[in-house]
Amino acid sequence: MPASDGAGVKLKRIIGQPALPDLDPFLMLDAFGFDDPKAYIAGFPSHPHRGFETVTYMLAGRMRHRDSAGNEGLLGPGSVQWMTAGRGIVHSEMPEQDEGLMQGFQLWVNLPAKHKLVPPRYQDIAADRVPEVDLGGGARAKVLAGEIGGVRGPVDPGATQPIFIDVTLAAAGAARIPLPEGHNAFVYVFEGEAEVGEPGERLATGRVGVLSQGEEVVLGSKGGGRLILVAGKPLREPVAKYGPFVMNTQTELQQAFEDFRAGRF
User: Fold this and answer.
1) CA–CA gap between residue 134 and residue 29 (Å, rounded)
2) Is omega for the bond preceding 119 within 30 degrees of 0, making it cis?
3) Which of 16, 29, 107, 111 could make a disulfide contact with 55, Cβ separation 3.0–4.6 Å?
4) Which secondary-structure segment (H or E) carries 113?
5) Which residues make beta-bridge pairs with 147?
6) CA 113 to CA 138: how far, in whole Å?
7) Contact 146/177 with Cβ under 8 angstroms?
8) What is the pLDDT of residues 134-145, one digit of tens each?
9) 58 neighbors 76 (Cβ within 8 angstroms)
10) For residues 127 and 78, is the Cβ–Cβ distance under 8 A?
C-alpha cells in the first residue's frame, strides 16, 4: 500500500500493512523508487529505534547514514546497511543527491527478547563486498546475508539467521534455491515477473509472495525478472510495538519511551 515515512519520503509498504501485518521475524518491508526529488529529498532525519534491526539495501542513488554511536556510512547502488538498534540508537538517513533515481528497500527484523537490549551495532557493506552466485537456469543472486550455493554473504548473521538475496532471473529459465527448514520466507518482485513454486504461480512487478514451509523454492520467469528473496528463523514471541520501538510487553515499550525522553539512548 502507498505510504510515507521520515520527513515525507514516498514508498510502498509491503510488510507492516493490513493485508500482511508481519511475517515473524520480519516486522516491516518498505520499497522506495522515485526519480522525482520531491518524493525523497527530505529523507529520514534523526529518529530513535530500540529492540530490532533495520536493513537498508540500495539499488540506485546515494544516502548518508549517521547515528548516535558515532557510525557514519554512505549507501550507494548495491550497498547494504544492517543496523542492530538493540537497547537504543538514534540515526538518520539523508539523500546525497538532488536529482535522479533513488531506489531501494528497508526491512525491519525483530530481535529475540534476550537480545533486545544488546549494545547497538552497525554493519556498513559496500557493493564490492557483496558476492554473486550462479543459481543455474540462467539465474544469478547477490548474497547479502546467509549462505546460498556455498557462497556466504558479508552480513554477520544474528539470532534469526537471516537470508537476504537479490535474484535476477533469465527469460525461460528456472532455479532451485535451498532454504533452511523452519524459516519463514517471502519474495518481492521489483522488475519484470517471476514464476514461484511448482506449479509456478506468476507474480508481476510489485507483488509479494509469502512462501509455504519447505526445504527449497523454485523460481523461474518467462520473460525475465528481478526479486528479493528473504528468509528468517521465526521467534514465536509476543510483540509489543509502537512507532520506532519493538519490545515484548507494554511495560517494556513504555520504558523505551521513558529512556528515550530521559536521554538514555
Assistant:
1) 26
2) no
3) 107
4) none
5) 152
6) 41
7) no
8) 999 999 999 999
9) yes
10) yes
